[in-house]
TrEMBL record:
Record-given protein name: tRNA-2-methylthio-N(6)-dimethylallyladenosine synthase
Described function: Catalyzes the methylthiolation of N6-(dimethylallyl)adenosine (i(6)A), leading to the formation of 2-methylthio-N6-(dimethylallyl)adenosine (ms(2)i(6)A) at position 37 in tRNAs that read codons beginning with uridine.
Uppermost EC category: transferase
Residues in MTTase N-terminal domain copies: 2-120
Domain of life of the organism encoding this protein: Bacteria
NCBIfam families (alphabetical): miaB-methiolase, MiaB/RimO family radical SAM methylthiotransferase
Gene symbol of the encoding locus: miaB
Any GO molecular function: metal ion binding
Length: 443
């Protein structure tokens, strides 16, 4: 039996894709290994959204040349970089003949056949398959890690928003949604395996739409259907959301489900910039004022909701005034957490042709200042939790400690070994770094 090793870079979508790849290969008679040295097939599942992730993956790919010299094995590059960087890979590692195939995100079904073909014709030229942008893998139930209680369900693939800095529509294709029936089937499967915390994934889940009997079934309908159909589902969560698709009506539905204790009280809503001028250049289709009003309304309905976001500094033409507008929004909203990045130029995107560019020195300076501000806010919010009681559901044991999720989806640690999947009431006694530490007051 041939063994495969898979290394995954990037977002939760890629992690979910890696489970699909494992299922396809396992069903075809291959065996997964965690030891790259004993693998007959080495797969690198890549991300091209940011340059940093791309460079890490490229470094891993080029390091595999020595492995190929030691044994007969296949090396495959999967995912976003296969589509977006075919030329670079062809000129580099493919030219040196140690990468055997590249498959885009919609071509994973072909893996078993390609592997067999390459072992039969080992010295032949590399195979590159990108595939049509229609695949949703809606009929494939993912390979499940038996440990833990968290599961991920991809409800849609691709993106139609074409933000000017973002490569996703070019490497993952246009937006397409899975049928609700297949989503429900996968959730039912995950629940049968003990996965009671489910995260719905998509580039823009709020834009979800499915057709059934000439009716358009939207994201609000999907949330309601999942929660009504699966009473044994403990918490539902979703990533990622686009502010332009967050209507006030949808905010009310989300708030209702949060207050019922069925949705984690957390919303990840990427702001990207607090400057209306930069938002227009980014093609984000909302203003800072619209974003703020939506967050304000959700906080009125769910006072203890946690708001997290993504922020980009140093977008082309960003002035000090534009940057200060972002800085001001971070202070005004008080995000619980933020993923903050320097603008990273990506192939195919419109932002490549927006000038002038911002120097690395200025980008770094602005990023550090923003990180320091957000760290202060996060620290203050965490300290406000001390001496308060929270329900916690245990997700993992590590050494003699337990890690769990609070209702706002924040991780907390209890300094004793507890039952995974069981809920407790804890009192937060201190903050260690960025992590709340609690002690049990009630089982």
């Amino acid at each position: 039996m041939r063994k495969y090793f898979i290394k995954t870079y990037g977002c939760q979508m890629n992690l979910a894709d890696s489970l699909i790849v494992s299922k396809i290969l396992n069903d075809a008679g291959f065996e997964k290994t965690e030891n790259i040295k004993e693998a007959d097939i080495v797969l690198i599942l890549t991300c091209a959204v940011r340059e940093h992730a791309e460079k890490r993956a490229l470094g891993q790919i080029f390091s595999l040349g020595s492995l190929k010299k030691r044994k007969k094995c296949l090396i495959g590059v999967l995912g976003c970089m296969a589509r977006g960087l075919k030329e670079k890979l062809t000129e580099g590692c493919l030219k040196e003949n140690f990468v055997d195939f590249l498959l885009g995100p919609d071509a994973y079904r072909k893996l078993p056949a390609i592997i067999e073909e390459k072992f039969k014709n080992y010295e032949n030229k590399p195979i590159t398959i990108i595939e049509e942008e229609k695949e949703t893998y809606c009929d494939i139930l993912p390979e499940i890690n038996q440990e833990g209680i968290e599961g991920f369900v991809t409800i849609m693939r691709g993106c139609d928003n074409f933000c000017s800095y973002c490569i996703v529509p070019y490497v993952r294709g246009r937006e397409r949604a899975r049928p609700i029936s297949s989503i429900l089937q996968e959730i039912d499967f995950l629940l049968s395996k003990g996965k009671i915390l489910i995260t719905l994934l998509g580039q823009n889940v709020l834009g979800y739409k499915d057709k059934e009997n000439d009716k358009i079934l939207d994201f609000s309908y999907l949330l309601t259907t999942i929660i009504e159909k699966f009473p044994n589902l403990r918490y539902l969560h979703f990533l990622t959301s686009h502010p332009k698709d967050l209507s006030f009506e949808l905010i009310e539905k989300i708030a209702q489900l949060m207050n019922l204790g069925k949705l984690f009280k957390e919303l990840h809503l990427p702001l990207q910039s607090g400057s209306n001028r930069i938002l227009r250049l980014m093609n984000r289709k909302y203003t800072r004022e619209e974003y703020y009003e939506k967050i304000k309304y959700l906080k009125e309905l769910v006072p203890d909701v946690s708001i997290t976001t993504d922020l980009i500094v140093g977008f082309p033409t960003e002035t000090e005034e534009d940057y200060e507008a972002t800085f001001d929004m971070v202070k005004k909203i008080g995000f619980d957490f933020a993923y903050m990045f320097k603008y990273s130029e990506r192939p195919y995107t419109k932002a490549r042709n927006i000038f002038p560019k911002i120097s690395e020195e200025i980008k770094q300076e602005r990023l550090e200042k923003l990180i320091n501000l957000q760290n202060e806010i996060t620290k203050r919010k965490n300290e406000e939790m001390i001496n308060k009681n929270y329900p916690i559901i245990i997700t993992k044991n590590q050494n003699n400690e337990s890690i769990g999720r609070l209702p706002n989806n924040k991780l907390a640690i209890v300094k004793e070994k507890l039952s995974i999947g069981k809920e407790y009431i804890i009192k937060i006694i201190k903050i260690d770094g960025w992590t709340p530490i609690g002690e049990i007051i009630k089982e």
